[in-house]
Amino acid sequence: MAEKRPRARATYHHGDLRAALIAAGIDRARTGGPQAVGLREVTRAVGVAPNSAYGHFPTLTELKRAVAREARVAMAEAMSAHLDSVAVSGHPGEAAEAYLREVGRAYVGYALAEPGLFRMAMGGDPTGIRVPAAPGGDDDDRPRPRFHLERALDRLIAAGRLRREDTGRAVMASWATVHGLSIMLLDLLPQLPAAAKQAAVDDALDVLVAGLTRSRP
Amino acid sequence: MAEKRPRARATYHHGDLRAALIAAGIDRARTGGPQAVGLREVTRAVGVAPNSAYGHFPTLTELKRAVAREARVAMAEAMSAHLDSVAVSGHPGEAAEAYLREVGRAYVGYALAEPGLFRMAMGGDPTGIRVPAAPGGDDDDRPRPRFHLERALDRLIAAGRLRREDTGRAVMASWATVHGLSIMLLDLLPQLPAAAKQAAVDDALDVLVAGLTRSRP
DNA sequence: GGCCCAATACTCACACTGTCCAGATACACC
DNA sequence: GGTGTATCTGGACAGTGTGAGTATTGGGCC
Q1: Which chain A residues are closer than 8 Å to B120 by Cβ?
Q2: Is the C-beta of residue B51 closer than 7 Å to nucleic acid chain D?
């Protein structure tokens, strides 16, 4: 008879509802993308009345922003794991180039492996999310995907393959490449075979590295 | 006293409701992006009952797809106008490179000038739109943004700056760069001064062209 | 020229969403 | 142990997209 469960949990107060809402949001975003994280849906998953969320977030958009922040941290951690698993060594210059390529692979790789969370993390305006541009735009100091990119560029500079004053434009070009690549493979070429996708990533990263390390007039 | 307008138009039948709905969709998308084109909103703008749209589109998503197609055509036309306005001449190789740069400027320029329509045209999955990947994915033969890109790459090949067998990867790298650049400037760096944005575009396009035309092992 | 029919637009209804307001509840502190 | 306050709940409202059934109409046939 499944009584209409007047309360799914033992206590009236939840304990840490804010964190639970974000976790449920991550869960929904993973399978359904940003669109799937709704106020009623998330509160239902936690087992709480819809309006309970308003005690912790002034509006749904703010909840989504918090979920997006968490998704960015998760993405950075996945990238970290990937980067730790591949050891680049040898000639410093080539190692630095290889490292940047690995960062790119990690970025796009996460986008392809977790499209929902990737869109949640980097979806931008149409999803109602503002992705902070500068480091420090997020309020805590846990690493974000941008951290790995800057690390890679620093290594290129240290190896003498990139001029320090070109860092700004290098960030632009690199980020544009990996992000554009992710969106393309996700939205435009979803049914391309995985091998072909990987080849496209490698090709585009080759072009990027070649362009970055080529001395310009 | 504005009677509640039982019928805003003279005739019961509209005449060309399908086209009118798409036009109204373009109008809403221009100012509010893909989110702003809703079924009730669009039909209201046309002066028609909400469900009238179902005679022409099986679902709202299909209407949006049609609007997105139209937005892509509009984008290609704007790019055409830009490309016609700048005359590139001189040494064939450098002219071809300059032409590719202009195509990139036209792409990003449109994204910055008409963010709503750009998102409608190229928004991709989170907006519920599938952007056709291959030429011919759109059913008519009006030019799309991709057309200009391929034209530019053809000129590079003709000028001997790009190998024909590298076309595929060149499309990837170019599209990723311009699209990623657009998203970045729109979502991540919205309040960057226009001049700085233009500089970022030029820098990233420099990197792209350098990478594309550099012979690889 | 008048009639019928298929196309077209409309009305009513439903389930769902985010958000506001007022009230009930339980934890923490004195 | 009583009280204050942060927290959660209930009902309500204006929106949304969509389904089924109904009215209106213009064009093709006699």
Answers
A1: none
A2: yes
